Amino acid sequence: MEPANQPLQGALPLFDFSQSTLPEEFSFSNVEANLRFECLEIKALSKKHFYTSVFIEPQQNWDWSDLGNFCFAFDARALDEHSTQMFINIFDHQGQMHSRCINIAPGKQQSFMVELKGETLHGGACNYASGLRSNPCPWGTKDVYATWMWGALNIDLSAISKIELSIHGSLLDHHLLLSNFRLQSSPAVDPNYLSGIIDRFGQNAQQEHAQKIHSEQELAEVTKAELTELAKGPMLGRSKFGGYLDGPRQQASGYFRTEKIAGKWSLVDPEGYPYFATGLDIIRLANTSTITGIDYDHKLVNQRDDGDVTPEDSKEKVTVPRAALATAKVASEVRRAMYQWLPDYNDPLAEHYGYMRELFEGAVEQGETYSFYAANLQRKYGADGADYMAKWRDVTVDRMLNWGFTCLGNWTAPEFYDNQRIPFFANGWIIGEFDQVSSGDDFWAALPDPFDPRFRQRAAATVSQVKNEIKDTPWCVGIFIDNEKSWGRMGSIDGHYGIAIHTLGRSADACPTKAVFVELLKTKYTVIEALNQSWQTNLASWADLAKGVKGLTHNSAQVEDYALLLEAFASEYFRVVKQELKKQLPNHLYLGCRFADWGMNPEVVRAAAKHVDVVSYNYYKEGLHPEPWSFLADIDMPSIIGEFHFGALDSGFFHAGLVTACSQQERGQMFERYMQTVVDNPYFVGAHYFQYIDSPITGRSFDGENYNIGFVSISDVPYQPMVDAAKRVNQSMYPKRFRV
Where is each Agarase CBM-like domain found (predicted)? Predict the structure, then answer.
């Protein structure tokens, strides 16, 4: 049905499922579909197919521009025993996408809302007004408010061309009933929907859950019970460095190394025992702070050093001078109103204030931060002036060993490096002044130009910092340098080969990579006429190419050369980093830059494989679905997962995370399934879960991520279902991995 172009009153049905045939607007990819009980019954064949989708496409674009504030909504029920994460992608005629996700729990029917027009929709990756990656529902309702993911908050509602209901990266098939597709008017926004939502422990003040702490006494009781459990000690059967005591012992080198054992890639610990790296990321306070809404006189805040090798979001805390506190002013009324309590500047818990001098995105450009997590550590372990941070570090290592993890994952605070009880992974960032190259989709930032000599200088400075931190200890498994670089998004020529395409459009005089690209093409074609014939261009000379060429047609010869140039670019990046790392740290493994699943182009992976010791990937799906990983056999390299996670909304959060569960219990089940796919894969030598601690409910300071993804809550209380799942995985992984 075509909705009328008028203000919406109540709800407007979009389709009629009472007929004997499906509406013609529906089509399907890797989905079995029929009508049942006046519902759309679908079976998504996700075990076999990475992408499964329901497409809804009108014959003529829908015009919903005059409907007032409204939501796209529908009802859903999962017929399985597991939940379903579904992405709702709504496209306009220009290809802009508004993407949200829902988690459909088994056994009950729910209504889900996607807000498309309303006064709270302001922002990009996060909401500008709130600074949250996804807001809570701005009005009271029993319906489920779909979680914001990515794309454009405001698309062209005058020409909606497609709605896609997608399930991807799942290890399980999904059987669902969908019904009552409609547009419905949005209730009036509660002006106080973001006010007073956080209590003095940093928890959701308006929702009860199993982890919630209500008093210092309760926190002390929970802590005492956990310490009693941890006193039982580490998981048995491990070598000094966490390797497999009963496994096939290899030659000892004194440091961690790689070797293929019985056809499976493996790490080998310093004493020669087979080693599989399981651990947690972000074991530090740097990402536990959230924006308070207060700012100071910037002249009184310490500024960044030009030679700094640590990005702003990785700094544990920028201390605020006392003189700056006297200039405090409200920079965001919305942010300030979120908190029921923040300490006075003279309060003992005020030491957990800090400052963020630059944000990726948020309600302010910079401002005061507060770490409720650090405050709760002081409450737990700081009685009578005790060193609560030292106690936290001891308890954290006790947890990792008791839970069966074999390492501390990436982004562990250097203060843990000399613990000599559990191995760790180190990391560094190459930042500073050097030329950059764009992929056209630079998510975190543009890429460094590795042919700029200043890049090598900054790489050397980064490695020097890492060297000073790890002190050549054999407890360091290896080193990640950089993270989730924007190498290009697969799916289109412009996305995949953006680095080559954009750089070809630049002048060689202003871009070292462009100058190298010109020389590579000269070597291949020798004369400009040969290039013109292949590319179907009309360049007068190599000098014309050097000036910049745009508007290429992307014919097959051009695409072949884009691949050549992209691999050359990436190879130089990894070559330079490897040289500088091995020069200063020859005994340690180079683990690459942790490819995001949206930026692991084949050319770049091949380039990395030439230079790294272990190829690293951050992979936010339900597990290693076989379809996208078939290339591993071709490169035949040891590989590691640097990040994955699962979250749920039953612990007071407004955003579950990138991969969702319906409960804490299911989070544990999904962790176990994911890890089994890694243990079973002969190319992977480990996986790190992201992250140790939940995000702040009001979002981490740098970018507003407000995910329930921790093994411990903001009050430092472990999620028992996650702990139990980790123990099961870590207890069984060595016998399973190295069984004869």
Answer: 16-194
